Amino acid sequence: MFRMLILLMIIVPAVEIWGLITAGKWIGATPTVLLVIATGVAGWYLARKQGLQTLRLAQIQLSRGELPGDVLLDGICILAGGLLLVVPGFFTDVLGILLLIPYIRGMAKLLLKRKLLQWMDEGRIHWYIRR
């Protein structure tokens, strides 16, 4: 896991720099910079809007005595999508936008839920219940 994280920290910025340079050659430096700024602002706005809706839904579920498990996974996906949109670069922006689309986010939540359950079964994540 740690090696994969290190690899991602090297590959992702290199791909993003390559994408920004390529876009700068195609459309020019100023439009490229403006596009990066626009996607960052749009990402902040969309993530904030969807995040607040998710927070309200979690509060409603908690007030009814329900566990907001799916809503928390939604919030994690929205947070990740917003962070990816704020990071300068076009490839991370595409991933961020995909995580903010509810249908695709639903598929990501399923994958995340399966992975978390697998980690719990393997003993990597411990589940404690207070009595």
How would you describe this structure to a colleague?
The chain has helices at 2-27, 29-63, 69-86, 90-100, 102-122. The chain is an all-alpha fold. It has a domain at 36-122. Helix 1 crosses helix 2, helix 2 runs parallel beside helix 4 (90-100) and helix 3 runs antiparallel to helix 4. The chain is flat and about 55 Å long. The model has no long low-confidence stretch (mean pLDDT 87). Pfam families: FxsA (PF04186).
Brief overview:
This protein has 131 residues and is mainly α. 85% of the residues lie in helices and 0% in strands.
What best-fitting shape do the alpha-carbon axes yield? flat
How many helices? The count is 5
If you compute it from the alpha carbons, what radius of gyration comes out, rounded to the nearest whole angstrom?
A: 18 Å
Proportion of residues in β-strands: under 5%
Question: What is the overall pLDDT average?
Answer: 87
Instruction: Name the quaternary structure.
Output: single chain
Please give the number of β-strands. 0
Give a quick account of the main beta sheet: strands, pairing sense, barrel closure: none
Q: Would you identify the regions where 5 or more consecutive residues have pLDDT less than 50?
A: none
| Helix/sheet category | mainly alpha
CA-CA gap between termini:
33 Å
The run of helices and strands is HHHHH
